[in-house]
Design brief:
- This protein is an alpha/beta fold and 431 residues long.
- It has two domains: 270 residues, Vaccinia Virus protein VP39 (Rossmann fold, 3-Layer(aba) Sandwich); 137 residues, DNA Methylase, Chain A, domain 2.
- The chain contains 14 helices and nine strands.
- A seven-stranded mixed sheet has the order 3-2-1-4-5-7-6, with helices on both faces.
- Strand 2, helix 3 and strand 3 form a beta-alpha-beta unit.
- The longest helix has 17 residues.
C-alpha cells in the first residue's frame, strides 16, 4: 500500500474548510498563495498550458506544476517557457510504455484528452482513436497516486460510451465522480465557449463544491436576485458578462503581418494582407452581428457559390463580433473569417492573435512561442485560464475540506452529493 500523503500545515488565518465562494474571493484578494499549501499538479495534453495557468499564481492560486505532456513541440515549448522545464513532448502512449519513464507523485491530475474524437466537426469521430486517450490519462492518475483529477473536453463527451467507461474506471479506482458542462462567459471569460468537466476525488464528494457558482451573468437575461439555498447558483454580487469591448477595446489597429519583437501586447497584435476580394467582402457587411447571409443580401456577386447553395446553418461564418457581447468560441483558425464569427466589430479585418488570446482570457504577460500558425493553435485549443481558475477554486476547497467531519453547502448540492463533508465556520478573513 502506498504511504499516506502528508499535506503541509495550513496557516491559522485560512480555515480548514471553506465554501468555494469564499475561496474564490480569497483568491481575488490575493490571499490564497499565503495559505501554506502548494498541491502538486500534473497537466496532460497540456497544450500551451491554459489549464495550468488557472491553477497557478497568475490567477491567484498556489498550485505547483510538477509534470506535463503534449504531443506538439511548439506547445510544449510554450508550456515550459511559462511553467518550468518539466514538460515531456511526445506521444503519451509511447511515453508511458517506456520503462525509463517516471511519473512524479502528485495531488491532482488535470488535462483534456484530445477532443477532436468527440467534436461534431469531425465527421469520422466514431472511429477516431483519439477518443481512447483517456485510458492513458487515468494511468497517469494511478501512477502519480493523485487523489483528485479534472478532465476537460467538448460537451459531446458527456453521455458518450467513453464517458461511461471513464466513470466506471474512476469509481473502481476509488474516486467519487461528478460532471457537468460550463459556459466560460459565466466565469469571467469574454467568450460563450461551452466545455465539459469531469471531476473525481477520493476523499470527498466533488458535488459538495462542484460545479462552481457562476461569477458573471448574462445581462440580457438577468440573474436570480434572491440567492436562496435552493437556487444558489451565483456568487454574491455577480458581475455582467465580460464583452468583446472589455477585452480588446483598448487596442489600436494592428501593425504589420508578422510577430514583432516589441513588448506585449503589441508583439502578437498583427494583421493579414487581405486580397482585394476579401476586403470588398468585409466592407460589404460593416455592421456588428452581420454574417454570410447579410453578405449574400447586400453583395451576392461577391458571395461564394457554396454559401449561396447552403441555405441554412453556418450563421457565424463571415460574421462580425458585437462590441457589447462576449465572443463566440475561439477556434484554431480565428484569423480566417470564413471559418466563424471572427471579424472585428468595426474594422475591416479578422481579429489578431493578441485579440484572440485576450478573448480566451490569457493575460498579456503570458509568453507564446512558435510560428503564427502554431501560436494560433495554442490559443484556440486552450482551456480559458479564467474558467480553469474557477475549477481550481473547487479543487482547493476540496483539499481544505480534507479530514473534517461536517460541511456547509447548499441544499441542492447536499441532495446531489447525498452526504455532507467538511464544515467549519469560515474565519472572518474568508467571509
Amino acid at each position: 500500500m502506498p504511504a499516506k500523503k502528508k499535506y503541509p500545515k495550513i496557516k491559522a488565518d485560512i480555515p480548514i474548510v471553506a465554501e468555494e465562494e469564499a475561496v474564490y474571493k480569497a483568491r481575488l484578494d490575493g490571499r490564497l498563495q499565503d495559505a501554506g499549501l502548494a498541491p502538486r499538479v500534473i497537466d496532460l495534453f497540456a497544450g500551451a498550458g491554459g489549464m495550468s495557468l488557472g491553477f497557478t499564481k497568475l490567477t491567484g492560486h498556489g498550485f505547483k506544476p510538477v509534470w506535463g505532456n503534449d504531443f506538439n513541440e511548439s506547445a510544449g515549448k510554450t508550456y515550459s517557457l511559462n511553467f518550468g522545464d518539466h514538460c515531456v513532448v511526445g506521444d503519451i502512449v509511447d511515453i508511458l510504455n517506456d520503462p525509463k519513464t517516471k511519473i512524479p507523485k502528485a495531488d491532482i491530475v488535470i488535462g483534456g484528452p484530445p477532443c477532436q474524437g468527440f467534436s461534431l466537426l469531425n465527421k469520422n469521430r466514431e472511429d477516431d482513436p483519439r477518443k481512447m486517450l483517456w485510458r492513458q490519462y487515468m494511468e497517469v492518475v494511478e501512477r502519480s497516486e493523485a487523489s483528485i483529477f479534472v478532465i476537460e473536453n467538448v460537451p459531446q463527451i458527456l453521455g458518450s460510451f467513453e464517458h461511461g467507461e471513464i466513470i466506471g474506471v474512476a469509481e473502481a479506482m476509488g474516486f467519487k465522480v461528478r460532471w457537468t458542462k460550463l459556459c466560460a462567459a459565466d466565469y469571467g471569460v469574454p467568450q460563450t465557449r461551452w466545455r465539459a468537466f469531469i471531476v473525481g476525488c477520493k476523499f470527498a464528494d466533488p458535488a459538495t463544491v462542484f460545479p462552481p457558482k457562476k461569477t458573471h451573468f448574462n445581462p440580457n437575461k438577468g440573474h436570480r436576485k434572491a440567492f436562496s439555498e435552493e437556487f444558489d447558483e451565483y456568487v454574491s454580487n455577480p458581475l455582467p458578462w465580460r464583452t468583446v469591448k472589455d477585452a480588446i477595446g483598448d487596442l489600436l489597429p494592428p501593425v504589420g503581418t508578422e510577430i514583432r519583437n516589441v513588448p506585449s501586447p503589441l508583439d502578437l497584435h498583427f494583421g493579414r494582407t487581405p486580397t482585394k476580394m476579401s476586403l470588398e467582402r468585409y466592407r460589404a457587411i460593416p455592421e456588428e452581428g452581420m454574417n454570410r447571409f447579410d453578405l449574400q443580401k447586400r453583395a451576392p456577386h461577391i458571395t461564394p457559390a457554396c454559401w449561396i447553395r447552403k441555405t441554412s446553418g453556418g450563421t457565424d461564418l463571415f460574421g462580425r463580433l458585437w462590441w457589447n457581447r462576449p465572443a463566440f468560441t475561439i477556434r484554431t483558425e480565428f484569423f480566417k473569417p470564413e471559418k466563424g464569427r471572427y471579424l472585428h466589430p468595426e474594422q475591416h479585418r479578422p481579429i489578431t492573435h493578441r485579440e484572440a488570446a485576450r478573448l480566451q482570457s490569457f493575460p498579456d504577460d503570458f509568453k507564446f512561442t512558435g510560428s503564427k500558425i502554431e501560436i494560433a493553435k495554442q490559443i484556440g485549443n486552450a482551456v480559458p485560464p479564467m474558467l480553469a481558475a474557477r475549477i481550481a477554486d473547487c479543487v482547493f476547497t476540496l483539499i481544505l475540506s480534507k479530514g473534517v467531519s461536517k460541511c456547509r453547502t447548499s441544499s441542492t448540492r447536499l441532495k446531489e452529493a447525498g452526504s455532507c463533508r467538511g464544515y467549519q465556520e469560515p474565519t472572518p478573513a474568508l467571509r
